[in-house]
């Protein structure tokens, strides 16, 4: 696109914003950033909320404009102006977007709506709720809860710099999943700007749209401004531990046992297993790290471990008794005695090159199966697993309670994890391929008909939307059913009602039903 084209778009968009402002706003020009007019701020904003260096290269497509709203009316105007210009609008809340779909597009022209200025968190202990703007990060939410109460928390991710908007709208989970379920299971209200530029709350948007944006990906339906969430009770004393074992230290047998007992343990207990290839004494092996969060003291935890998983040999010395907010630091690989204010640091994590994928396991893997998996990890040399147990309350929540269907019947979820620091395109391809090889290898061990995936771990390898109309629906169904199973059809119906022109779209958004033009399309329209 020529500089003259971008100049015209910048001026047209600015004039549109000014015209739609409910009152004279002399600062309206400060929320619009262009690579031609204010390149320094444009680049700083674009790069500051990217957590995957794969999308910071010169070849990565860049938005023609970045809009940084400071109030709701700015968001309304941005939606209307982008729609008037027939330009794709992407919404970014935090940047922990494994495939960059909140700020990268295959379309030639797109605008980035970066919500980071809208990050207010208001906690009301009289109702035990918090209103969280979607530009906030989890650390800010956790800090504001900590300010008001030592015995309340929220069931969400372990990384403080995750953006609330993407995390909650995609489902969201953390170490309290077995006790309290997913983040979206605790959303009681929301505010959204729809495709017409209207601000709607739960009552005015209706239950179908509210259901859809609580786990179906908010960016498919509008721009979510805030979520109102219900806080959960946590004890004053929590217990955490980390125990590392190599293959020589019986790691295979321990993981084999873990898969069967972890989903059945006391729902106050969550034990994640991380499997990573390592080199110990010049010999390649796999290290299995058992990391626990228990909603209770160490005595009760040790009794539970003795009854259900004595093979891990957890001792009193392995355990740290901490507050809930200290457990957040522990799980974020930070000093658990860090000052709580560190949770307000929006840029505290390291940015690497990375890829993530996901799977669900519903049938225990045999010991021989685990042995082959360990051998494959050693063979590939870098990619690893995060294994997250299910069970507990997840067995009790219906699959259609939210768009997130992967509930009962799952033993654990796999996150495939590959990080690297070298800035080398050849290594990028090598590591991406290594992860894909491991994913293919795991086919025989994971869910089938269809193979499930977790929306927060966006994965373009499982399908992308191609075209529009019938082809858009057909291609959208491929990845849609992996993320949402039978809930996909309901999401499509909601999309068709609230955004039939598919203004809010990405490579993996929810497609609307095709318009009725041919007999073939008519059949699809009746789904």
Radius of gyration: 23 Å
Stated plainly, the CATH topology of the largest domain is called: Vanillyl-alcohol Oxidase, Chain A, domain 3
Number of separate strands: 18
User: Strand order within the widest sheet?
Assistant: 15-12-14-13-17-18-16
Number of domains: 4
First and last CA, distance: 40 Å
SS-based structural class? alpha+beta
Beta-strand percent range: 15-25%
Second rung of CATH, namely the architecture of the largest domain? 3-Layer(aba) Sandwich
Oligomer: single chain
Form type: globular
Helix content: 25-40%
Q: Pick out the low-confidence regions.
A: 521-527
Number of helices: 16
Largest sheet: 7 strands, antiparallel
Mean pLDDT: 95
Name of the CATH class of the largest domain = Alpha Beta
How does the SSE layout of this entry go?
Layout: H1 3-20, E1 32-33, H2 39-48, E2 65-67, H3 72-84, E3 88-92, E4 110-114, E5 121-124, E6 129-133, H4 138-148, E7 152-153, H5 164-169, H6 177-180, E8 187-193, E9 199-200, H7 202-205, H8 207-212, E10 223-230, E11 232-233, E12 238-246, H9 251-261, E13 269-280, E14 283-294, H10 298-308, E15 320-322, H11 324-331, E16 353-361, H12 367-380, E17 384-389, E18 412-420, H13 425-441, H14 469-484, H15 487-498, H16 519-525
Parallel strand pairs: 2-4, 3-4
Antiparallel strand pairs: 1-2, 5-6, 6-10, 7-11, 8-9, 8-10, 12-14, 12-15, 13-14, 13-17, 16-18, 17-18
Helix pairs in contact: 1-3, 9-12
Account of the 3D structure:
The protein is of the alpha+beta class and 527 residues long. It has four domains: 3-114, Uridine Diphospho-n-acetylenolpyruvylglucosamine Reductase, domain 2 (2-Layer Sandwich), CATH 3.30.43; 121-233, Uridine Diphospho-n-acetylenolpyruvylglucosamine Reductase, domain 3, CATH 3.30.465; 238-318 and 350-457, Vanillyl-alcohol Oxidase, Chain A, domain 3; 463-525, no CATH class. The chain has helices at residues 3-20, 39-48, 72-84, 138-148, 164-169, 177-180, 202-205, 207-212, 251-261, 298-308, 324-331, 367-380, 425-441, 469-484, 487-498, 519-525, and strands spanning 32-33, 65-67, 88-92, 110-114, 121-124, 129-133, 152-153, 187-193, 199-200, 223-230, 232-233, 238-246, 269-280, 283-294, 320-322, 353-361, 384-389, 412-420. The strands form four sheets. The chain has a seven-stranded antiparallel β-sheet with strand order 15-12-14-13-17-18-16. A five-stranded antiparallel β-sheet has the order 5-6-10-8-9. The chain has a four-stranded mixed β-sheet with strand order 1-2-4-3. The longest helix has 18 residues, at 3-20. Residues 521-527 have low confidence and may be disordered.
